[in-house]
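Cross-check.
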Amino acid sequence: QSSVPSLMSEPDSILLVPAGDHYTMMDFATAYFREGQSMQGLKGMSAEKKSAADLVRHTKVPIQESLLQYSDSELNELATKNFKTLMRLMGDQPKLKNQNDVECIYEILQLCKEKESLHDEVYCQVIKQVTHNPNQESVLRGWLLLNLLTGYFIPSNVLMPYATKFLQLASSDPSSTHQDIAKICQSNLRKNFMYGGRRHLPFPVEIQAFLKGCGARRLVVQMPVGVEYLTRIKTFTVAKELLQEICEQMGASEQEEIEEFVLFAIRIHSDNGNKMVRPIRSEEYLHDYLLEDNLVTVTLRRVTWSTPLHFEKKIYMDVHYGQLLWDYLNGRILLNCSEEMEMQVGILAILQHWAKTEQQNGAPSREELKEYTPKTLQSSLNPQALQNHVGLVLRTRQPLQPVDAKIQFIEHMMKLPFFGYNMYLVERLSDDTVAVPCFFGVNKEEIIVVDGTTQAVSCVIPLKELQKMRTMRPLSDGGLPGIELNYGSAASPKTMWLELSRAKEMYHTIVVILATTELHH
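Predicted model, tokenized:
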């Protein structure tokens, strides 16, 4: 490593703001700036103090050497070049020909992404340039950059207490015009410390909005009922915050239940129309999924079902009904495999019919019955037999109000043998004793392999026995992606691979479930 060892080898610090007058940026500059170290032999306290204060004070002239000592000349050169870019962004130096603010910001962020050892240097440069800077517009630009830096890159363990102290002082200074932005920087740094910062640099359009003071963007979350949940997310909003907000609106306020819901990012590829579905882990930043081209949709799903359902709020009931209905109609909920299949489908068709407010009386038409039947069963069920079952139910039961019909539909689903499993249709499998296509089900405890015809469970893998898994690319053009599972004990390791169109979705869903389960152990 080419950075100063003393700056990089300190013990881990936690995000606590130091008390008292210690840990000021002046203290840091005296101890770690190259000029501070050479100044320590100065005679006279006041002269020393004045010079130390100058080290972290705005300058109108570009620095000739990096503020921190680097043994690597390339890092020194990159640091001085970055200071000029910073001055151009802040309006302290004229921009290069055809250069704009967005390019200046991007250049600085890109440097931090590529050179981790320069994080402290860039932080110190920005803090220096916003301190005692007489130009308010220049100060604001410096703070906007600091807002981005704190959300993306974390200072070293050595600089951290000084940086947090600087932000704390700035956010509590009543004479300051940037109190609010300093508070945002504090929050960004805290999140960064907990969640690791955003992975992808912002798109130019996001930086432009940011420079205009629009730190939030409108986001539409598609709920399972066809309802759109409108919200505004900030530059560094993590999935956990949005989940909390949506769940509170639905009346699910217990942390244990909130953790059962997951946001999914769905991207339709413009060239081939393929759909990529990926669950977003609770600690991931939403903006890392929202691409510039607006081709990403965010949806909400319940992934595990440990906490009891409660129907005090209509939206809560509608969301659960909508998700289970969609899964049922798309073949992701397996019905009891028996002679009474038509009867089950008939009852569920009637409940769907009654769930529609405008369909209180009268029997569903043959066309409507088809709509109420899972796509996977439409070819195997006898339409006439189904209509006869529906007629029988209508003659023997009183119509239900939509709310009651939805609750009964949900209750019917909950009695099914594989309720609570996320089901995936698998086309190929390394275990040749299992007929394919078959289903893989994933819940909080286990992965099961279910026969596609008889619904017999041929294999159970407890999640706690899962040692390792990885996704696999398709073996050929037009082939399916796959997952390799390594499970069992060290004494008896086992491997299984499977091919399915939803390989990435299944892989990341297991990751999300495992992460939530680990939180409670």
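The CA atoms of residues 96 and 155 lie 29 Å apart. The chain has four domains: 25-212, 216-302, 335-415, 422-519. Passed to J.P. for a second look.
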